[in-house]
Amino acid sequence: MKKGNKISILGAGNVGATIAYTLTMDGMASEIVLVDINQNKAKGEAMDIIQGTALCPPVNIYAGDYSDIKDSDIVIVTLGCARKPGQSRIDLAQGNVNIIKSVMPQAVHYAPDAIYVVVSNPVDIITYTILKTTGLPESHVFGSGTLLDSSRLRESLARTLEISPKNIHAYMFGEHGDSAMVPWSLTSIGGIPLKTYLNSMREKNPDFKGLDLAAIEAEVHTSGAQVISLKGATFYAIALSARRICECILRDTNTVTTLSGMIHGAYGIDDVCLSLPFVLDCHGISGMNAPELTAQEQEKLLASANVLKQTIASLDI
C-alpha cells in the first residue's frame, strides 16, 4: 500500500536534481523517483541526496525507470535540452517537442492519474504538446509558466521599494519568455494599488523619483538570460517554483497563481497554453480568473498569445 506522497521527476539534470533536493529539504514527499536516460546520473543524484536524509525530513529517493513512477501523485517534467547562452526558449522548441512526444506515452501508461507539472522549456509549447498528444485532462497538465517571472518581478519591485516581496502582489501574464507582459493595473503593495502607493511615497518624500516600470519589466525579461550568461544555467529559482506548486497541490491550498494552462476564450484567446491566474488545489488547476485589464494590457497579452500560436504553427506537434 502506498504511504504518503509520491513525486516523480522526469529528467535528472541541473533542474530535475535541484527540484529533488528542494523537495527533500522541505519534507514535501515521502517518496521521490528520478528518471533519466542517463541512469548513472539519476542514481548519483539520488545517492547524493539520500546520504543527507538523516539530517532532514525522511524520504525514500531513488533512481528508476518509467515503471517506477506508478502511483505518483505528481510527475514533474524537466526533460529536454537546457537553454544555452544567447539562445531563446523558443529556439529549443522542436527538439524538446520531439523528446516529449517520444517519452510521454510511457509516463502516461504508468501514471495516468498523476498531475503533470511541466518545467521543460519552452514551457508553454511543451505543455500544449503534452495536452495535444496524451489525452490527459487539462486540469492535470500545466506548466510552471510565469510563476518564476512573477517572482522575479516581485523581487525587483521589493528591492527598489525596500519592502518585503511577500507584501507585493504583481504578476507576469502570457508567455514564459520575451513576450510576457506585466498587468500593472493589478499590481498592489500591501493591498494598496501601485499607483496610490507611489503617490503616497512622493507625498512623504519629495525626492522620490518613482519607478521606471519599463526598465523593471525589461529586467525581468532578461534576468534568466543574465544568470545563464554568468553561470551557465538557471535552476535554484525554478526549483523553488516547482516546490511551491507541489505544496499547493499536496496541501490543497486553493491558491491563485500564474501557471501555463490551456486557454479557452479568455481575452479572446483560444487553443494555446499561456500563463494567467489559475486556482491550484489537490485536483490540479480547478479554475481560471480573468481579471479586468486595460485596453493596452489586453493588447500586449494578445500579442504574447500570437507569438506562441505562430511558434506552434511552425512545429510538428
Automatic annotation (TrEMBL):
Allosterically activated by fructose 1,6-bisphosphate (FBP). Its EC number is 1.1.1.27. Beta-D-fructose 1,6-bisphosphate binds at residues 154, 169. It holds the Pfam family Ldh_1_C. It comes from the Bacteria. Keywords: Allosteric enzyme, Cytoplasm, NAD, Oxidoreductase. The keyword Cytoplasm applies. The active site is at 176 (proton acceptor). It catalyses: (S)-lactate + NAD(+) = pyruvate + NADH + H(+). NAD(+) binds at residues 15, 36, 41, 66, 102, 119-121, 144. Homotetramer. Catalyzes the conversion of lactate to pyruvate. Belongs to the LDH/MDH superfamily. LDH family. This is L-lactate dehydrogenase. It comes from Caproiciproducens faecalis. The gene is ldh.
